[in-house]
Amino acid sequence: MQIEVFCLCRMVQHETAGHINILHIFDTLWAAGEPVLVEPFIALAAIRFYKTETGTHHFNFVVREESGKILVSSTEVVSIGSLTFDSTVYWLESRMGRTGLRFGAYSFSIESSDKPLSSIPLYIVKGNRALQRFA
């Protein structure tokens, strides 16, 4: 199994034939002051399973602050049956509600059997993105 996509985004549109559109991918939010009101968003992952990986899989979705303290933890159970092709993709979505956060870095990770499979950051930064230059 491998994580092919892992991102934070504002919206996921599910189309026919298993296609999806991922809208407004980000890793940084800018704000003038604290607490920062963070609008709802989605942590989205595409997990590819191969024929040898059929069965039941348990995934933990974990959000940690910089100190390592766990802020959010949820579990998803995925059952992969026999496959017609060599592999299949399962889209794992974790919807984050509106919340207040402080400036700093937050870690979003997908874990299985207490082992991290993939991790991405969310940076909450003081300032105005419109005033920042692209590198």
In brief:
The protein is an all-beta fold and 135 residues long. The protein contains no helices and eleven strands.
Q: In words, what does this structure look like?
A:
A hairpin with a 2-residue loop joins strand 10 (104-112) and strand 11 (115-126). This protein has a single domain, classed as Sandwich (Immunoglobulin-like). By secondary structure, it is mainly beta. The mean pLDDT is 91. It contains no helices and eleven strands. The strands form three sheets. A five-stranded mixed sheet has the order 3-11-10-6-7, with no helix packed on it. A four-stranded antiparallel sheet has the order 2-1-5-8, with no helix packed on it.
The CATH C-level class name: Mainly Beta
Q: Going by CATH, what is the homologous superfamily? A: Macroglobulin (MG2) domain
**Model regions low in confidence, pLDDT < 50 over at least 5 residues:** none
Number of domains: 1
The helix tally amounts to: 0
Question: Main beta sheet, described?
Answer: 5 strands, mixed
Summing up helix and strand content along with how strands pair, one would put the structural category as mainly beta
Rg over alpha carbons: 17 Å
- According to CATH, what is the topology? Immunoglobulin-like
Number of β-strand runs: 11
SSE order, one letter for each helix or strand: EEEEEEEEEEE
Helix amount: under 10%
Determine the strand fraction and express it as a percent band.
over 45%
CATH architecture: Sandwich
Shape: globular
Query: Averaged pLDDT, please?
Result: 91
Strand order of the largest sheet: 3-11-10-6-7
